[in-house]
Amino acid sequence: MQKISRIFAVVLAFSLGIGLLGLFNVQAQGDSPTQTPVPTTSPDDGDTTQEVQSEVEWTVGETTFESHYPAGFTFTTTITSSAGPLARGRVVWSHAPGTQRSRPAEIDPDTGVLTATWEATGADAVPPWVGITYYWDVTDEAGNFFNSEPGYEEYEDNSREWIRTESEDIIVVTESLPEDVGEMVVDAMEENREKYREAWGDLLPYKPRAILFGSREGWNEWQITAGNPNVVGQTSDDWGGTVQVVYSGDLEDLAYGTVPHEVAHLYQSAFTIMTPGSWFIEGNATFFEIHQQYNYEASVRELAASGNLPVLLQDTGPGVSGRNARRGYDIGYTFWKWLTDNYGLEGHRELIELLDSGMSRNQAIEQVTGLTIDEVESQWRVWLGASAVAPTLIPTPTLFIFPTVTPFGQ
Ligand SMILES: [Zn+2]
To answer: 240 C-alpha to center of ligand 1: Å?
Structure first.
């Protein structure tokens, strides 16, 4: 079952001169298609010294958006120009500030209706309930162009029962999960609000979304193609949110651990430059978790006490994938804990600002702390209870390469 949302809007726009940017337009819109819009602006408004060469009147009729989740969505509109038929049109949209997508419109020669459809594929699928801010961009045969006022929609999934919880910090939608999960996430985000603000210098320039699945069918559906079964979440600044699936997991950890962690990744994208897949970026996101699966600092202190704390600030440092992935996250977390214990959230903000200016990680750390990178490594180690001196990097021994059992090309 699909719900079509219709916005009836009539826009009268008068452009002075061909292609002149000074478009005067008035938009009236309401729930009722019978509402009569009253233009209140005339082309005489504003003081223009440019000679009026032509006056084009643009009229925007019924505009619709239809979600075909998970297959995509369709926009329609009717826009006419007093100067002649339309030559071309397209719809331009974004889910979060930054990335824009567009699709050309087909124009029905009889009705003048413009239709633009985005068909999702496995490569560019987006989860349900992402926001869609869009406008129409049209050009008539005389070369006049017009952009409609922005519209806002959501990529609705009406095939399942969703619970929506929205606060000033986040929009949460859940399916097949207990009713209070949305409230828990809202609570976690509220608790973290000032920490985010101080650490990053401001809040995100948009309201992030947490799209949380409790069923495998729901989770599989949005990705269209079968993904890696071990992947249970994805976060994207392209659509400004995180999508997670929890089958029988720890809801406390989802709301107070995973979501604040993933939202921190959105802050990283919005405010700075960090190397993906590093202890530095994952430790930073972990630093924003309110709920820890176990005591991360204590586990790194144990590692330090056993004499196995690896080198942090040389080369790539501890890895965050494979068998020791979790260890890399924990060690990274202790770096950010050490930094903010000593230099405050202000030190965090200074560091991300230096990184954003293009400075290298170690240079930025030296500038914020006023220490050499060796002194930072040493102080962080001693704080964790390790020896002051990091172990020397051992040259990688030559490995015997065994022939693979799968013939090449098979
Ligand atoms: Zn992460």
So the answer is: 15
